[in-house]
Amino acid sequence: MRHAAACTVIASVLALVAACAPLPMRPIAFASGDASITDRHALPRPSTTGFAPANATAERRAATLDRIWQTIDDYYFDPTFERIDVEALKARSATELAAVRNDAEFYRVLKRNVAAMHDSHTQVLTPRQAEDDRTQQATQIGIVFDIVDGRVVIIDVVPDFPADEQGVRRGMVVDAIDGKPLDEAFLAKAGTVASDALDDDGADARSAEPESIRRRDRQRRAVRAMLRNEDEAPRAHRLTLRRADDTPMEVEVLARTGAVPTVESFELLPSGIGLLRLSRFDHAILPRLDRDIERARVESRALIIDLRDNPGGEVNVFRQLVDHFIDRPVALGHLTARFWGRPVTLTLDGVPIAKPYLKPIAVLIDRYTGSAAELTAHALVELRDAIAVGDPTCGCVVGIQREFVLPDGGALRVAEASFRSPHDRRMESDPLVPAVTAEPTLAEARAGEDVVLEAAERALLKVPLPTANAP
Questions:
Q1: In CATH, what number does 137-259 get?
Q2: Which band of pLDDT confidence, cut at 50, 70 and 90, is reported for residue 341?
């Protein structure tokens, strides 16, 4: 495998950092859809009436909290914690812990205070959440929505999930969820209040962005919060919808847990531009990915790489992907981790393949483009002048490679590495802003038009083709 030596060095550095773990560790070995790893239904949800044996006494709960903070002290990529007052968080969490009456409240205290580290990856997961994440399971009704012209519009439907089975289709307007109108008054309030329960302290992490972007993001989070089941139990939601012809439709959909598929596909658009879609960076897609990029090199005049709604995944997939688009050895980025308590920086080296793709590229991005997908977008923009089209990215670029196991089987994840772009730009909390934005009108969204894809296609058709890179 390419990069084997470099990967070994990185793994060794991170492993040495882990020499004296305050909590036991397990690898995050993602196995898409492999529910056989553990029967998730045998994993208890946090009780609202009492405590699991591992959390039964105040002493055990306090010991777990102490070990969480010790693990963060030992492993967090930045030993100075930048602007975070960790000592204040420790004191606050200890005070709140004394008042918890059950596991649900216990986890709420852990989640809230660890989330106050304010990076995108450091978090506490319940036993079931950790298992679902490792097996790429999700409990959802299966819709993707956006805010368009002051309305909540469904822009995609996950195949074979409940919403799809109930006839919900892209382009429908959501007028209400569980009887709560998603009207102008709701969105106006949501746009000014950080209502996402996962936003620690109601903080707005994107304070450097234009207010219009932050307002739309807060509105999205407010709608998502209405569909989230905090107790992890599948729950029915009643959707009041309007079809594209404005006729009403009401459905009740029961959230269901199922494997979220990894999508990797290629098609040649009528314009001669190739479209490569990637929903997650999973090593299982690598053989198909290599074949599809070679097909694009031969058949397409330019290439669009769709990284929207892609939360990232394995760093080695990012490296192998970008190797297809460079013509000389080059730094793809820089990784910093702690080695015996001191930060060490390594270069992520790019090694070009024999016949790289050197024609024009566009990258589609949005608020959910994060981690390895965000690394890819930055690298292609900085190294290949790729045209970024869409919305600003997540700003979620730190690294984890394991999780620390809590006494009841839950998990602590700690950002153990930070990344900088090829041009040495910090990416965590600093989203990539697209060169081209494209906002659909309500009519376009309801017609199912993908205006971001169309904008990328138009931009690429204006770029002259290179004389090199003939098939």
A1: 2.30.42.10
A2: confident
